[in-house]
Amino acid sequence: MGTPSDGITNKKQNVVNVNDLVQYLDTCHRSHFMLFNLNLLEDTTEFQAHGDDQSIVDKLHEQILEFYWERDGMKAHTPPLDLMFRICYALDAWLSIDSKNIALVNCQTGKTRSGVVVACYLLFARLAEDPVDALVEFYRKRWDIKSLTPHALKKRTPPSIQRFLASFHELLTTHKPRNDKPLLLKAIIFRQLPVELQPCVQIWDDYKLVFCTDALHVGESREVPVLDWNEEDGFFAILWENGVELDGGFSVLCSFGEEYDNVDDLDASSRVLFRYVDSTLFLLPGLVTLKKHDLDLMKPYEHGFDDDQFSVDLVLHENSAKMPRSLVHMNFSGSSAVRQGLVEITKHHVVLPDPSMYSNFIRMGFCETPTTFALQCSQNAPNVALDLLHSKGVSACFVQEAMESTATKDVEEPVEDNQTEEPPAERDLQPTLRRQTTAEIVAMQSQRSQYSIPTALDSSLCDTCKEDDYMMRPQIVQCMGQCGRYYHTTCVGLRKIPFGLTTMSDCANHAAYLKKFLSAWECGACDPESPLSKEDLPSSWIGGKSSTSSTNPEDVADTDDRSETRDKNLKRLSEQIPKKCSIS
């Protein structure tokens, strides 16, 4: 879908009204949706509907994953291949852990980036056999064009997108690239360029600009190349002695140079003549010759390029001096794929996990990744997080992880003299999954922390003892007076609240207890006289330990039956407590 806005929903014009979207999601898929945002998160968070103070992030309950890719300002339709695998793992994990879950893929127009991601996921999930067929399936559903054929779409799809989908499909099939080593670009030679003045040539890697002829941006190597331009036959050569390092995806853009009249009046996209996008993972050292059909030619200038005479040559050399960039494993399947997907979700979720809640869940025996995932999806609500941790999809996946961890420890034990250790080559066939720690997740999310709503720590911090103990959170009460501060019942002389926050039934009892007996309570500074007395409470609620059972609120009774007043209070309380309570 396109970016949500305050306009009227119009699918053909890529307009999605944010309030319509939120109403639909809350009605049909509440607690089961996740937005995979391919836009710059800043654009999404800063938008607010007219007359509405809530941002899109707030309206969507912060269930957003940021998978935006950029190349230092250059518009790129395709992400790094490594990032695409991470997106697919995240999509697969989210859809696998609960059959009710749905994923929303969002980009600026809802067409190009979304189409590439959805097509790759269809290939990843084995829901499509051919890259073009996968893209056709997306556009048929997106625009309701049932008559669209692969041949028709292929003619209208830029070669760079077709090349990216084919490369991704090849990696899914082979699990390894043709070339896993970086390369050196030693020369680019253009023949029969249809321009009168020297063009501007830019080279980008997956993340930034590494070379530009106009500004003579020479990149990290600081090497100034030799430029040879001949306006008579449109010949342009760029030669490096040491070469430009390429590792992974890269783009070559050729556009009108600064010497053209009125070039400053054109936007960046209008200046571009053509672009070439590829990856070193699928190129080998040697000469690569590109013809017109291999390049993304801009429509206004396409007619000027000769089909036979025009060409671009890339001279590539080995780069043995540089280690290749580490990539995510491409052959995870089953539970391993789901676990990797949850790792990616925790990395890219806009909510930061509450550190104290995280620590307590870890002490309770839960694994790191599902704990972080549960806290993010619950917006740091401990009871909802606990339900997620106990859900079938999450718990089953990480029970298997615990078994694999035990098996790994057994393998790592010293072998006896009469035993033969397994050959390294065989061990390497099984990829290892590195779990993400909270410290790493927080570090990776630091650049996005400004967009997420911080955890309300004040609501769990006692103003008297200044402690935020997770196990004492059921005993937190708020002063309803002028100060509005929070206190532990034991710190202000109140009776201990006899209900925990472990089960849904406990939550119902806890909420009803607070509403009935503490909704008007004020601390000593605001009101020296306590409104509660021992006689006001049912005898079964005085003293004792916090309940952890699933007792139905209507089954709570005053067994002593010593006071008619208490019976009436209990009856009124039972009528006010709902049988089911949903905590969100």
UniProtKB/TrEMBL annotation:
Residues 459-529 form the PHD-type domain. GO terms for cellular component: cytosol. The keyword Hydrolase applies. Residues 539-551 have a biased composition (Low complexity). Residues 407-433, 531-584 are annotated as: Disordered. Gene3D superfamilies: Protein tyrosine phosphatase superfamily, Zinc/RING finger domain, C3HC4 (zinc finger). Residues 559-578 have a biased composition (Basic and acidic residues). Transmembrane segments: none annotated. InterPro entries: Dual-spec_lipid-protein_phosph (IPR051281), Prot-tyrosine_phosphatase-like (IPR029021), Tensin_C2-dom (IPR014020), Tensin_phosphatase (IPR029023), Zinc_finger_PHD-type_CS (IPR019786), Znf_PHD-finger (IPR019787), Znf_RING/FYVE/PHD (IPR013083). Keywords: Hydrolase, Metal-binding, Zinc, Zinc-finger. Coiled coil: none annotated. Residues 180-319 form the C2 tensin-type domain. GO terms for molecular function: phosphatidylinositol-3,4,5-trisphosphate 3-phosphatase activity; zinc ion binding. The keyword Lipid metabolism does not apply. Residues 1-175 form the Phosphatase tensin-type domain. This is Phosphatidylinositol-3,4,5-trisphosphate 3-phosphatase. It comes from Peronospora effusa.
